[in-house]
Amino acid sequence: MQGVPSSFLAAFFFLSCFICLYPPDLAMAKHAATGVTRHYKFNIRMQNVTRLCQSKSIITVNGKFPGPRIIAREGDRLVIKVVNHVPNNISIHWHGIRQLRSGWADGPAYITQCPIQTGQSYVYNFTISGQRGTLWYHAHVSWIRSTLYGPIVILPRRNTSYPFLKPYKEVPIIFGEWWKADTEAVINQALQTGAGPNNSDAYTINGLPGPLYNCSSPKETFRLKVKPGKTYLLRLINAALNDELFFKITNHTFTVVDADASYVKPFETDTIFITPGQTSNVLLKTKNLTSNTRFFMAARPYSTAASGTFDNTTVAGVLEYNSNNTPLSNNSTKGLALPPLPAINATSYVAIWTNKLRSLGNSQFPVNVPQTVENNYFFTVGLGSDPCPKNQTCQGPNGTKFAASVNNVSFTLPTTALLQARYFGNSKGVFSTNFPSFPLNKFNYTGTPPNNTMVSHGTKVVVLPYNTTVELVMQGTSILGAENHPLHLHGFNFYVVGQGTGNFNSSTDPAKYNLVDPVERNTVGVPSGGWVAVRFRADNPGVWFMHCHIEIHLSWGLRLAWAVMDGKLPNQKLPPPPSDLPKC
């Protein structure tokens, strides 16, 4: 290379070697103005995994269960090539990532993309804007997320710090659910018969069921090894399919500092409540112990479901103190006391706990809750039923099939992606824009349910002009049993401005809203037998899924989509789709 200094060539050669030697699923590339571009490769493939004395072949990322950790900083760009080597269709959602003007990378099948077919690939390309904390990724087609999930760790920008004491160590803790059976067979059977699905066989911590389950080997217990007198940051993720969870460590307390990758005013608690889809960063300060000691950590479900059974078991892991630098002699958990967890149906406990969450709200991390509202919506969320097809016996309520709906509309997934249809103006026959803003038939939502519990069906979206402010009240119903429904909105965070029990009162309840420091989330529980109110600004053009994160409710139709229109300026419009966008 004539005219190029030898020092430059040496540096170039060194950098090339560094990139070659770096692991393929985390290669940092060129610097951008605000961060770096990080390249990952996700090979979706089958992997034999043994749990509870039974082996089965599961769908994984790069053969790992749970999947590999994604690490980035606020402002970084992620370029993730997903290659599908399994027989199933695949799509991956980057749960909680705002996806500002990158809706083509959001991931839910038939909403923002057609799934990646066997032998095909797709590159998810997005920038992390204004977010730091813990998020996660998971498959977003059928029930494949039961094994295809992993953490997204977003560190603060370089040369900036946490708004709390820097932890000694950071540890992702992912709660999951394990079935001995094939989960695709489980959901297919449930949808065929109209009944509730077969329960999972265990809950897991980082993919491990722990010692309380029959036939669990010592290797199947998660062990967190700690030193005395140190502060650990636990990055909690609830990746379970169908269950909200309480989590506790015997004789220890946590300081909650973050919810859904948004900082909160720190508060102490000995118990964490976390719904499917939610994440939370909590600080654990270890005790000043002088001897090696073990404590149980445990999680079990919160449920008020009257509809069918649920997995009423407890997953345990072990907190291990290495106080005198000599390893513990064995892996025994004999004699360890389980931490006392709230009652299974502790609805009032959940309400008190969630009301403690408040945005940090300082000059560096301000609260931008809309003070005025241009678009008001009132959505009932809950279960319902479908008639049994002729010449079939159904196992749902009174011989029907279970269903679920928003404003009595059970969402039908299209066969082509909504975002594509909308972008190219081909919405006719794909979706309609007449989703009801309010229930068409009013009733005593949390009282005695109506006799007719049948739902309607359709692929209907809510259209929002760009940058309008939205208030959405979500009202739980008692139809086929009152339950807590964790609602997740793609493409946005929202502020949780109010919640309460019973039926929402539009005359008196808004006066009690918190418009000063409400918590900012992407997933919120609609309380069992109650309501929740959220506000957000529609500043992200695209088509955005909103659904219950209890997977069976999603499968039954508790889902809808918001279509946010382009703004007038170039930076307020959705760019064209990438050339490798999968085809249906």
UniProtKB/TrEMBL annotation:
<feature type="domain" description="Plastocyanin-like">
    <location>
        <begin position="44"/>
        <end position="158"/>
    </location>
</feature>
<keyword id="KW-0677">Repeat</keyword>
<dbReference type="GO" id="GO:0048046">
    <property type="term" value="C:apoplast"/>
</dbReference>
<dbReference type="InterPro" id="IPR001117">
    <property type="entry name" value="Cu-oxidase_2nd"/>
</dbReference>
<keyword id="KW-0325">Glycoprotein</keyword>
<keyword id="KW-0964">Secreted</keyword>
<keyword id="KW-0439">Lignin degradation</keyword>
<dbReference type="InterPro" id="IPR008972">
    <property type="entry name" value="Cupredoxin"/>
</dbReference>
<keyword id="KW-0186">Copper</keyword>
<dbReference type="Pfam" id="PF07731">
    <property type="entry name" value="Cu-oxidase_2"/>
</dbReference>
<dbReference type="InterPro" id="IPR045087">
    <property type="entry name" value="Cu-oxidase_fam"/>
</dbReference>
<keyword id="KW-0560">Oxidoreductase</keyword>
<dbReference type="InterPro" id="IPR011706">
    <property type="entry name" value="Cu-oxidase_C"/>
</dbReference>
<dbReference type="GO" id="GO:0046274">
    <property type="term" value="P:lignin catabolic process"/>
</dbReference>
<feature type="domain" description="Plastocyanin-like">
    <location>
        <begin position="444"/>
        <end position="566"/>
    </location>
</feature>
<keyword id="KW-0479">Metal-binding</keyword>
<comment type="similarity">
    <text>Belongs to the multicopper oxidase family.</text>
</comment>
<protein>
    <recommendedName>
        <fullName>Laccase</fullName>
        <ecNumber>1.10.3.2</ecNumber>
    </recommendedName>
</protein>
<feature type="signal peptide">
    <location>
        <begin position="1"/>
        <end position="29"/>
    </location>
</feature>
<dbReference type="Pfam" id="PF00394">
    <property type="entry name" value="Cu-oxidase"/>
</dbReference>
<dbReference type="InterPro" id="IPR034285">
    <property type="entry name" value="CuRO_2_LCC"/>
</dbReference>
<dbReference type="GO" id="GO:0052716">
    <property type="term" value="F:hydroquinone:oxygen oxidoreductase activity"/>
</dbReference>
<dbReference type="InterPro" id="IPR034289">
    <property type="entry name" value="CuRO_3_LCC"/>
</dbReference>
<comment type="function">
    <text>Lignin degradation and detoxification of lignin-derived products.</text>
</comment>
<keyword id="KW-0732">Signal</keyword>
<dbReference type="InterPro" id="IPR034288">
    <property type="entry name" value="CuRO_1_LCC"/>
</dbReference>
<dbReference type="InterPro" id="IPR011707">
    <property type="entry name" value="Cu-oxidase-like_N"/>
</dbReference>
<dbReference type="InterPro" id="IPR033138">
    <property type="entry name" value="Cu_oxidase_CS"/>
</dbReference>
<dbReference type="InterPro" id="IPR002355">
    <property type="entry name" value="Cu_oxidase_Cu_BS"/>
</dbReference>
<keyword id="KW-0052">Apoplast</keyword>
<feature type="domain" description="Plastocyanin-like">
    <location>
        <begin position="170"/>
        <end position="323"/>
    </location>
</feature>
<dbReference type="InterPro" id="IPR017761">
    <property type="entry name" value="Laccase"/>
</dbReference>
<dbReference type="Pfam" id="PF07732">
    <property type="entry name" value="Cu-oxidase_3"/>
</dbReference>
<dbReference type="GO" id="GO:0005507">
    <property type="term" value="F:copper ion binding"/>
</dbReference>
<dbReference type="GO" id="GO:0016491">
    <property type="term" value="F:oxidoreductase activity"/>
</dbReference>
